[in-house]
Design goal:
By secondary structure, the chain is of the alpha/beta class. It has twelve helices and ten strands. It has two domains: 232 residues, TIM Barrel; 70 residues. 37% of the residues are buried.
Length: 309
């Protein structure tokens, strides 16, 4: 099984990806947070910091794209190919309201003909390896099934599926019955994404969907940076090793972010990350809220250090 780092917008940028690769094992590929597509005349390559080759020398990276205009995908892919990229992923699963309103992300899923139009032009006009990351649908799983049926003739790299509807956001549980319908009817290579947090959730996937060979880990990696290692070996790391290695990862990440964004910018993203790190460090909801109320960078780090151990 291959374990891939799923994209989380605003979190898994190149600073996080590179730091993670310095401290953990068994992550084969990282898909970047989405990059809006545009016409050649609108593209400013200097703004593509997150996919700049000099920032991505650690592990394979697949740029993820978002949009709905077929020609913009072709133009953007051609510019990214000049940077050395050959694999590209299209996000049609983002459930954020501001994205859906523009018929991007999950907002395009009720329109399978528009999805096919993008895939058709990209496969006709470029020689790239193109893939899709999707949900079951925006409001109905029939949307995802209709898309897969239309895409059957196209040689996609893979289709990653998060088995929730867009309207669910991250609430409820993955719908494995609908994922099975996709699994049994499509000829595309399905990559699984969603709610793999521990050995038991992973084992369920392996037992019920043995043809799945790649799994994207998103929130699970944030809750436990060593998750891919533990899933590979089938054993959890010892408490001592987890604590020691997490402390080293965390210190490296803070140093990296301070150099890039300063104390204020670093504190902002650390507060977001601690919603996940709290699980790893076994913080109570009350302790987490106390930590998040701290507005001084040094005080925040001192308190967080006590929780890391």
């Amino acid at each position: 099984m291959e374990f891939w780092l799923a994209p989380l917008h605003g979190i898994t940028n190149f600073h996080f990806r590179n730091c993670l690769n310095r401290h953990v094992k068994n992550l084969s590929v990282a898909v970047t947070p989405f990059l809006p597509v545009g016409a050649t005349s609108q593209i400013n390559v200097r703004r593509w910091v997150d996919v700049a080759p000099e920032n991505n020398r650690s592990g394979e990276v697949i740029p993820q794209l978002i949009g709905n205009e077929p020609t913009h995908f072709v133009d953007t892919i051609r510019e990214l190919q000049k940077l050395g990229y050959q694999r590209f992923n299209w996000n049609i699963g983002c459930p954020a309201a501001q994205v859906v309103r523009k018929q991007r992300g999950c907002g395009i899923m009720p329109h399978p003909e528009r999805v096919e139009a993008v895939v058709r032009l990209v496969t006709q006009e470029t020689d790239c390896c193109f893939s899709i990351k999707m949900r079951l649908g925006l409001k109905s799983p029939e949307e995802g099934l209709a898309i897969l049926e239309r895409l059957q003739p196209y040689p996609l790299d893979f289709v990653a599926v998060h088995p929730r509807l867009g309207v669910q956001q991250y609430e409820g549980k993955p719908d494995f019955s609908m994922f099975r319908r996709m699994y049994e009817t499509t000829g595309q290579n399905l990559v699984y994404s969603g709610d793999i947090f521990d050995l038991s959730s992973y084992q369920y996937l392996v037992d019920h969907f043995p043809k799945v060979r790649q799994v994207m880990l998103g929130r699970g990696i944030l809750r436990n940076p060593f998750l891919a290692e533990e899933l590979t070996t089938g054993q959890m790391l010892s408490d001592g090793e987890r604590t020691e290695r997490f402390a080293a990862f965390y210190a490296d990440y803070i140093q990296t972010m301070q150099a890039a964004r300063g104390e204020h910018g670093t504190l902002s993203i650390l507060k977001e990350l601690w919603h996940y790190f709290a699980h790893f460090c076994q913080l109570s909801p009350e302790a987490l809220q106390e930590l998040l109320r701290i507005t001084d960078f040094k005080e925040f780090n001192e308190r967080a250090g006590k929780y890391i151990g």
